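Re: [help] complex structure
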Amino acid sequence: MIGLAGTGTTLKRPASRRRMILSYLIALVVMMLPWQGYSLFLRPDLVALLILYWSLREPRRMGGWGPFVMGLLVDVADGTTLGMHSLSYSVIFFLANSFRVRILSFYILHQTIQIFLLLLTEHLLNLAVVWFLKEGFPQWFWLLQVPITAILWPLLPRLLERDGANTPSTSS
Amino acid sequence: MGNHRQQLFNRGTPSWVVLLGYGFISFLLILVDGRFHQIDGLRQSLALLENPLEQVAHLPEAAMQSMARAFETTDQLRNQNQELRRQLATQSVQALEAVTLSRDLNALKDTLKLRDQQREAQTVTEILAMGHNPFVQNVLIGAGRNSGLVSGSPVISLNGLLGQVTRVNLNTSEVALLTDKNQSVPVEVARNGVRTMAFGAGNGSLTLSYLPAEADVMAGDLLVTSGIDLLYPAGLPVAVVKELQNDPTSASFKRAICLPLVGNSDYRYVVVLNPAHVEADLNTDAAHLDAPRTAPARGKK
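Output below.
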């Protein structure tokens, strides 16, 4: 299975703006589900994952305002300090843009590792903001969100591409 | 997606400029919201936008609850009914006693010309959800500015003090639990009136730090609010001392680990009170209206 291919043989049709917005809304709703207590530590950060996905897939459709606004919405939904997620999302958006060609040249497993590192960056940035504001740190297993989000990466093309399940396998 | 070279050169604004711009705005927001709490307007309008999504997200839980209610058996309901009647009986006796006591107390206070601290429950509401913010221990309650809540109000539940309203939205409010790291509450030991401060430890317990080594605090002591902060009314049960530890930094101090009386999941309905200083202002204002004095009403504080 090849996830997102930049140099692969498949040519993908551009994603419609409607599909992108719909996916973001669904991701927001999933993040708003009543995760609480320990299940909150297992909550995947789907919005961050989608920001990475769409910025790699549609670099010209995703302006810098997208991550920023989504960050604000997540901040409001979670009750975190306004600007915390918009900062971290903007940074990973920038990183994904800078390393786009490199990330796309990997096959799915290696791509997932790169995505893992980007998501880890995002979480550490949030921690940095918390430290800066002198709020309380969460328990360490809050970072479990990162691998849990990252392992969803290979599934994304299947969920988001109309012909995702039929993409010819070139990785093996 | 075929020709990459062309895309790379036709990007418009370089992405590091975009990052700088949005990063800077985000940083300003963090400063303004995190340090000065001055941007609740923006948060509330965004929350209003998100409200439909929020409702969709709460649908599964609501469906589960109504299912559970449908399967409640007559037996369960009867048992619950009996239990409630029993509670009502005991509490009505207590209420009668309280009436006599408060009459006596008022008479005493009148003679002593003390400020009348009689308080009324402001709002009864229920807990909607646990907070999603992993950095703060909070819950969401179902009353907001529409019900006249103000930030800082103490919130109590059946067993005692739950926490404090930290952010008021239109129809919901966030309540920081006592155990949150940024929360502290002045308490006294119910047994002997020793006064101290209880700080949230951030892990579900409270800590009494810097207790003098000879302070008379024992495991099992009940802590109640002392009311000296003009925020929490006096006498609300807060926590029970679980164990005493030696302060690692100094031999002349010890500290106590306490467990809050309000557990993490055994409450559903809560009562929001007016902060004591608001109440006091109301009283002084009323007194001010009744008999104009030269001193300003707030001058005493």
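The longest helix of chain A spans residues 108-133.
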